[in-house]
Design brief:
Elements: E1 7-11, H1 16-27, E2 31-36, H2 39-51, E3 55-60, H3 66-80, E4 85-88, H4 108-136, E5 139-144, H5 148-151, H6 157-177, E6 182-189, H7 200-210, H8 225-232, E7 243-246
Parallel strand pairs: 1-2, 1-4, 2-3, 4-5, 5-6, 6-7
Helix pairs in contact: 1-8, 3-4, 4-6
Length: 253
Amino acid sequence: MRLQNKVVVITGAAHGIGKAYARRFAEEGAQVVIADIDSRGGERVAEALTDSGFAAWARTTDVRNYLDVQALMRETADKFGRVDVLLNNAAIYVTEKLWKGPVEELESAEWDRVIEVNLKGVFLCCKAAIPIMKRQHSGKIINIASGTFFSGSGNMPHYTTAKGGVIALTRVMARQLGEWGINVNCMTPGSTMSEDSVTDEVLERRQGSMDKRAFRRIEKPADIVGTAVFLASSDSDFITGQLLVVEGGGIMH
């Protein structure tokens, strides 16, 4: 197992791809912390993992609140002795309604709502985890961006801007934290069938991305989680500041 006894904090792990990350990391031997604003959802994921014989703990966390995030990292370190991996997955996209439309019609409150979770939330989680990782002189930070950064597609100005900011923040932190042996990388899943329930609308949206790929099929969470494991494992120890695109050839950069 590639992550034996590693302590991994995954934000937004109660649903969708986050839940898939949690299971795969647990299967690789990690002690997984499910950090999600959905208390019951996080508990269900943790219970399912522990029932399967894996190590998992759920903590209700709002990534918009620095004191809450700081407490998450402190409690994780107190409970497990360290924080080896932070996977910043929490975002407004699938489980919450996301406004789409032209920039001039985007309300400031909606802009703030998405930026606060999708970009500021990543910043706050990193801010809270970095002092612990510095004391350890080791750590892996994995940020989740989006292919809309490359194409400007999706009709989501606030979402795409936030994800572009995540890529920029990744590169700055990689420069700043290399001295402490901390890796900071980023990955971009494509349009992925990650919903808990699949409607005709969801299926149509996912199929629309399929024709743009080298691999002509719908992307599933199982297609993504291996890349996250790689970035969390010792196999990526000399990789930092990088962006890995996991989109089946839909974007090549």
